[in-house]
Amino acid sequence: MMKIDKKLKRVFQIEIVETLSNIVEVGAENEQESLLKAQHMYRNEEVVLYPDDFIDTKFNIFE
C-alpha cells in the first residue's frame, strides 16, 4: 500500500528477503519420509541455519 506524507513524497513498502541454505543428510526409506524427518529436525532446532549459511538477498517493492 502506498501512502503520501505531508511533504507530498511517496512512501513505499520494500520487502527484504534473505535466503539461508544448508544441506543435511537424512536416512529414510523414501523422499517423503526424508522431508518429514528434515522438517521435524528443523522445527526441533536439531538443524539451525547461521549467518554463514547465507546465500542471497532480494528486495521486492509493493505498490
Main attributes of the structure:
single chain, 63 residues, alpha+beta, two-stranded antiparallel ribbon, 1 helix, 4 strands, 21% helix, DpnD/PcfM family protein
Q: What share of the residues lie within helices? A: 10-25%
Instruction: Count helical runs.
Output: 1
What's the shape?
A: elongated
Count of individual beta strands:
4
Share of residues in strands: 25-35%
Major sheet: size, sense and barrel closure? 2 strands, antiparallel
Q: Which regions have little confidence, pLDDT < 50, spanning 5+ residues?
A: none
Question: What is the assembly state of the chains in this entry?
Answer: single chain
Total domains, how many? Answer: 1
Task: Tell me about this structure.
This protein has one domain. The protein is built from one helix and four strands. The chain is 21% helix and 33% strand. The strands form two sheets. The protein has a two-stranded antiparallel sheet with strand order 1-2. A two-stranded antiparallel sheet has the order 3-4. A hairpin with a 5-residue loop joins strand 1 (3-4) and strand 2 (10-11). This is DpnD/PcfM family protein.
Quick recap:
With 63 residues, the protein is an alpha+beta fold. It contains one helix and four strands; from the N terminus they run βββαβ.
Write the SSE topology.
Elements: E1 3-4, E2 10-11, E3 13-20, H1 31-43, E4 54-62
Antiparallel strand pairs: 1-2, 3-4
